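re: that complex we talked abt at group meeting.

here r the seqs, copy pasted straight from the sheet so there may be weird spacing, ignore it
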Amino acid sequence: MDEALIYQEIHSAIAGRRLQPGVRLVEDQLAETFGVNRMRIRSVLRTLAHDKVVTLHRNRGAVVAHPTVREAKEVFAARRLIEVALAPEIVRVADDESLARLRAHVREERRCESSNDRARELHASHGFHTLLAELVGNRVIIAFLRELMTRSSLITAAYERPDVSSCSHKAHGELIRFIAKRDSAGLAGAMLQHLQQIESDLILVERAEVVTDLRSIFARR
Ligand SMILES: [Zn+2]
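got the structure back, here u go
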């Protein structure tokens, strides 16, 4: 299998949360899975590390990136800057066909939510944000937003509350209403609120590693 395909496979497993933050990516196992040698796998892992999806440790090898609280806040700050600023452009370019695409996407999100498959649901709801950037068509912004959305998936996997999902078809339906009304100030305001809501629903606290004092466990009483 060629490196670009292996990259895609691992990347989508991480974005789709089949591989959770912190999981070790063992070179031998990946080499066997994809039928290539370890050098190829190592090269793919380096590219994934460059794209901030994987972290390379000197001793432990590669693990799925576990974003820090600071990183999470920076990713959301960047999303606010870009996604809110895109509002006038989105309103300017959106025609009936784009509105139909957005509405179809929201219907898909609703289907995914009722399937109780959180990974699928999240993938669909994140896709909505990329789709908005795609409407505008600036390839630099699309690539940047895709990276931010992948990192957002890792952040959500690491810090979400199990019972809360604010990036959902309900909020997205509201955004579409502003686009249909050609209200760019309304869209900008609603997008800002949406992103703030998503961030405030996360539990952004650095989790200390669980350290167990083995001596206390085996201490003679
Ligand atoms: Zn959303």
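couple things i noticed - The pocket of zinc ion is lined by residues 125, 128-129, 167, 171-172, 194 (CB under 6 Å). The chain has a mean pLDDT of 91.
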